[in-house]
Amino acid sequence: MSGGGPRRKAGPQESPAPKPKKAAASKKTAASKKAAAKKAGASKPEGARAGPRKTEDGRHVVIGGRRWRASNPSLPEDVRQRLVNELMDARRAVGRALREGDRDAEAGARRRVHAAKLALGERGPKWWEEGKDEG
After folding, report:
1. For residue 71, which of 82, 79, 60 has the smallest C-alpha distance?
2. Best CA proximity match to 89, nearest among 119, 112, 120
3. How far apart are CA 103 and CA 108, in angstroms?
4. Which residue stretches of the chain are H helix?
5. pLDDT by residue (tens digit) across 97-129?
6. Are 63 and 52 in contact (CB under 8 A)?
7. Single pTM value for the model
8. Do 77 and 120 form a contact (C-beta atoms < 8 A)?
9. β-strands 60-63, 66-69: how paired?
10. Is 110:87 a contact under the CB 8 Å cutoff?
């Protein structure tokens, strides 16, 4: 016989104690929050875009708990949108190339992703340091 101590008989499993019920919190839906903000007179400025939370200095966005470099805020909206569209097209091209096993197409698509991120200010020289040495 191995082990020490008395053996226990197999019996019915004990169920955990029931969790106490929480008081019903008043949860507002996104639609009701939006309606309340509209009723209160809150509105976004013309051309403002909603997006992920930014750090206090505005240099990074926080997505899934990770910081990512934000796009250069001095880019005109139409230029920024064109670059974002190119970035997304390039990312789709990377996925397509991976599914098809086309290494040349993948390399080209990844170059397009890099070029778009450079133009957006998400890679390369830090946009918030531009002109620092010119002073």
Report:
1. 60
2. 112
3. 9
4. 30-39, 77-100, 103-120
5. 999 999 999 999 999 999 999 999 999 999 999
6. yes
7. 0.60
8. no
9. antiparallel
10. no
